Amino acid sequence: RFYTPEGSSLALTQQKSNLLESALRQLPGVTDSYTTINSGLAQGKNYATIVLRLVPRAQRPMSVDQMRAPVRAIMGRVPGVTVTDVGGGDAVGAGKPIQVSLQGPDSRELNRIVGEVLPSIQSIPGIVDVDTSSKPGKPSIDVALQRIEAADQGVGLAQIASNLRTLLAGDVATTWRGPDDENYDVRVRLAQGARNSLNDLGRIPITTGLLEADGSPRTVSLRNIASLRESSAPTQINRKDLVREVAITAGADGVPPGTVGLAVQEALKQVALPPGYRFVTGGSTKDMVESAGYAAQALMLAVIFIYMILASQFGSFLQPVAIMMSLPLSLIGVVLALLYFGSTLNMFSMIGFIMLMGLVTKNAILLIDFANQARAQGMERGQALLRAAEIRLRPILMTTLAMIFGMAPLAFGLGAGSEQRAPMGQAVIGGLIASTILTLLVVPVLYALLDDLKQRLSGSKRTQATDKGLQ
Fold first, then answer.
1. pLDDT digits (tens, 9 = 90+) for 340-389
2. Which of the residues 124, 183, 236, 319 has an alpha carbon 20 to 30 A from that of 228?
3. What are the backbone dihedrals phi and psi of residue 470, each rounded to the nearest 5 degrees, phi first?
4. Stated pTM of the model
5. Closest Cα partner for 342 from 404, 406, 285, 411?
6. Residues 6+ apart with CB under 8 A from 101
7. Which helix (H) or strand (E) holds 139?
8. Which H or E element spans position 17?
């Protein structure tokens, strides 16, 4: 998506679009393309969207992410074009990962602050497609009514506005059915040559409320009752939370959006804001913070519920601690797997870690339960733990391998659009491998240590009871 300078004609935007479209179609993997101007949410004759259709994924020499860099390079070589989005987000930038809302009461001050902070944001490594909702004013012509002269001629403001609207914008008089059997509006207005300059507009006749000698309405030129001058008008005025707003949006390329978002927040902290003005961050940075908070709450509740169930089933408050120590062990595998695959800690990888809590504790439950049964039959604790590891190794490996191979297609992103969900499979696989190896070593040791602690505590209680009985 891109736009040309404010005030550009539809023909200029179309010319730039044709240049870009012909250049982009030379990229390997592009089969066809189409361009829309002034459509959807990108209203304005200087806003355009180019959509590229690619060959099937297996036949592409580059992925969609890899194609963003050459697309930006091609669009950057065309003068008079400002790129707002390449391969993501919607027409107004609401889907971009980096979003900052500058809010305050005065538009001029907002534009000044944006001009001050934009260079520091654009210098952040990995940030691309920086854009703001603050655009230069659209060229316009101000018609200021000279009220005394207009009143003498019996002309009002509404009458002048109605005449100008009809002569410049035009009114639909009828419809015409073309040879293609389609209906077209017939719009009546001034010819192009009669509305090109201020002098042309000044000569527009306005019917007054006075009469000529023959009884016909008197007409007067617009320049005699109004002053005309070139000016500019704001293209849009944004408001949020009942105050004026200027939105700054950007994308990330080659760097995780969360990292870029933190760098943007650091850049914003260096800006001294006047009273009544503030920055409000949004986009993926805000979503990530909220999602991390919700995930932490879900993780905490899951740990509490798992502990309560294990304590009730094992009839002990200490043995569930040894079982649940496998949870932080799985986190080691999650981090290593994400590093190996080059993924980031996002919502899908968090979901994968929450899934791990039910999968990982299963291995420790098999060991502890078998050891408890063996000790109940008279086997010594160390021998019971060794026997549990030997007997339970096969079912542990069977269930772990089944889960790993089941998650492999998801982890390697073997389906169209699966790159987004791949971190979930990668987190599950890494956590299962690490927890399976470490659980067989760490959980028996913790079980023995906690059992010794339990015996010392029970022995201390028996000694205190005996001393109390002797007294």
1. 888 877 778 888 888 888 788 888 888 888 888 999 898 998 899 899 88
2. 236
3. -65, -40
4. 0.62
5. 411
6. 240, 245, 246, 247, 248, 279, 280, 281, 282
7. strand 138-145
8. helix 10-24
